[in-house]
Amino acid sequence: MSATGGPGDEVVRFVDRDELISLVLDICNIxxxxxxxxxxxxxxxxxxxxxxxxxxRIGLFPDRYNLLGCLPGTGSGESLLFxxxxxxxxxAVPDDVHHxxxxxxxxKAWIEGDLLIGDGVVNDKGPVAAFLIAAKAVRRSGLRLAxxxxxxxxxxxxxxEPYEDAPGAVRDTKELGARFLATHGGIADHVLVAExxxxxxxxxxxxxxxFKVSVRSAQPAFYTPYLPPRGEPNESPNMIVAAAEAxxxxxxxxxxxxxxxxxxxxxxxxxxxxxxxxxRSGDPSRPFLSPQIAHLYLDVRALPxxxxxxxxxxxSHALRDAGLDASVELYVFRPGYEAKGVETLVAAVRSxxxxxxxxxxxxxxxxxxxxxxxxxxxxxxxxxxxxxxPRSATHSFRRALTIESLYQAACVYARTAVAICGPKKxx
Length: 427
What we know:
Mean pLDDT: 94
Distance between the termini: 37 Å
Shape: elongated
Radius of gyration: 24 Å
CATH class of the largest domain: Alpha Beta
Number of helices: 10
Helix content: 25-40%
Low-confidence stretches: none
CATH architecture of the largest domain: 3-Layer(aba) Sandwich
Largest sheet: 6 strands, mixed
Strand content: 15-25%
Order of helices and strands: HHHEEEEEHEHEEEHEEEEHEEHHEEH
């Protein structure tokens, strides 16, 4: 049972644990890898319609779109939008990143003891189900809110990004998700993004800068029998060999970067890290030619307010100082933000958390505030937003949430809805 003595006592008893479990299993057994969210969007659209939330489909493409539902208030209070994403990161087909892409828990969901197992359960359809059940509890209670209560489920939070495709050829980018929703009416006075924070309150997130590092050779593409004698890696005519030296330089730079890039505030701690996530060079059908070009693709997490061009120049200098002829191109720029004006929402969530758990929320682990999340979209648009939700304690090797944690999340969400949307605006 959820504790009493906080906002929403009259609503939280309508949060149905069995109904929550059923909805989680339902939508998490509809596989929705990013780019393929259409089936789960259709299911949730039907659920929102049946439950009286008059949903809108907001999207650029007919086969995958965002959802926005509303429980209208009287118009005399502040509004709250719950947000979560329908896409999962698990690849739809085997790729060159995951050796575990066919694991059941990346594509399905089931109960084991007190656990709900599944990647979709953890990130992010489990928390989406929790706030949908919370919103239904508000409606079932008969309580008339002063402000609108909105619920949204978006695509493309884990999106691929264009990098070398021709304009118009790309059907995936983060612009399709929360940003498209927000700029087409999916906003409120306050936004709660239901992402894993271990029930801590987070209102700062890292940015991310993606750089393409290209090393080029002025020498010919040597046929193997004509290779010159080997020298230092940075002098090799084979750019795969030179790229190996670039990797060493970039790893050393990334270690120094992480040690000096930290941002602490009441809304969380950002520790900015960087890694090389992709390499492209050569021709597997003709490995007898030394490649004249190699590309490394670098993900650099960034502090709020950080200058992407200055970071690019840092990387360029590190490579040049190592004797490498390399160019560095910024191809994704997504700044990080510390949300402003969150005091009302923070107070509501803290009070609701205390009513459910009987304790103050603990600070969130730094990795949960060192990501790029959809909360950055709302922060950039000047809307007060926080991240709050359950987090898998075993995420690195088993993607699962306890049934109790999802139920507790639903209770906190229901209480928060009442705390924000229930009172009339002060005049």
